[in-house]
Design goal:
The protein is mostly helical and 65 residues long. The chain has two helices and no strands.
């Protein structure tokens, strides 16, 4: 597996601006960068099907109570 570099503060600032988060303090941005790395790492641990056609999303149904 390739190593993915940590999210830079510049990337987080750009992300925040794209999503209208204009009043964040430097501490908020730093924390957002830390959380982005954790979320990305967690996402990489999820098992993936080898092909999109094998994914169950197109046939997912919410169980009825």
């Amino acid at each position: 597996m390739t190593d993915i570099p940590a999210t830079s503060l510049a990337e987080i600032e750009a992300y925040a601006l794209r999503h209208g988060l204009t009043n964040l303090t430097p501490d908020h941005l730093k924390r957002l960068a830390e959380l982005a790395d954790r979320v990305a790492a967690a996402g990489r641990t999820l098992p993936r099907m080898p092909s999109k056609e094998d994914e169950p999303a197109h046939s997912f149904r919410v169980p009825q109570p």
